[in-house]
User: Fold this.
Amino acid sequence: MPELKRTLSHLCLVSVLMLTACAGQTKPDETLYQRLGGLQGVTTIVDNLLYELGSNEKLIGFFAETDIDRFRSKLIEQLCQVSDGGCEYTGDSMAQAHSTMSLDQSHFDSLVNDLIAAMDAAGTPVTAQNDLLSRLVPMYDEVMHPQRYLETDSPS
Amino acid sequence: MVKPMLCFLSLLCLGSAALAESTSKILGTSALSQLEGASGGGIVPWATIGGYGSEGEWGAAASISGVQVDDFILDTGTVLVGVNNRLELSYAQQTLQVEELASGPFDAVIQQQVYGLKVRAFGHLIYERWPQVSVGLQQKYNQNPNIAKDVLGADSDQGTDVYVSASKLWLHALGGRNVLVNATARYTNANQIGLLGFGNADGSDYQLVAEGSAALFLNPHWAVGGEYRQKPDRLSSVDESAWWDAFVAWFPNPRIAVVAAYVDLGTVALWDEQRGGYVSIQITN
Assistant:
């Protein structure tokens, strides 16, 4: 009996895992860009993010000299490219954009929190949020250590 | 025990509003408070540093938990401080109540204190390719060792566990959901995490044991998972089995985490098939 009880509880857990995996399935031909709501969805996410950043005391200082209109349009372009929306990002490389900021992990964490809040407010589905984050996270090293990338870009 | 702990938690709750330090870590990445006070799952310490303090910040957490299985109850209160997402200091007070010993020559209550230290060695839970790897110590003092030493043949009333944990959160990993995996190797001389003393008739008898956890985040607020903790079986008088749990964790916001679990502690001293429930509430500053 105890063995049965244990087996049942394990089966239960496995079925919960399988159900959630099923619930997360998406149409195979749909790009992330489409799941983010296309241009309108990505624009809403970026506008929400700017709103979050505007009240983020940790990060607002970095935008003192920023041309917000340009930042906004380049970020929309970048998120479109990253999510297979067929755009070409024409802005600075991540290393160039962050080269003078001396960011630490708390800045990166704080930005990720703001982006999640922006996506929540835009009603972005959780799986699309996770997908976008998983495509942005590989930029971590370049954002945090821009000098490594700039040195290799310019041969001396 | 539970009542003063609850009062303590509500005080902390009030205090945490006043102490609302600016902390930046992502929801859930403080993890939970495991039975011995370290940031982790319910029974396994993870490589995470407790609290929501990122680099240049600090965070604190307090928890109360109760395990109720067929023949005993284990209440635990914990506090921890995480600094710079690098260093974690923790304290746990465990109280084991054994129903059947209530009228006998031995302690029906066994109390133990655990002082913990954990340092993140390298890596990052989410952002870097390598998992986050931390090393930790748990210094344990059993206050009621008479059963363990006089009856069961344990060598000592205190001991030190050393462990290495590797944890990684994969984004968009399973059905679009995020998955956390943790593996821990522990070098320990504790019997039943120290509640039945340390070592045996042959001395301290340190052994290496393996522990693991896996969790699926259904969304940022809900996670389901399971844990396994291998145990030594060094006392000749009684058996000791591995521990299992299956849990549901809820992170409504960065201040609170609630966990409910089904636990299977196997054989504990004279009592076999010890299965039941585990509930824990954690407050974070």
Q: What stands out?
A: DSSP finds nine helices and no strands in chain A. Chain A has a mean pLDDT of 87. Residues 19 and 56 of chain A are 38 Å apart (CA to CA).
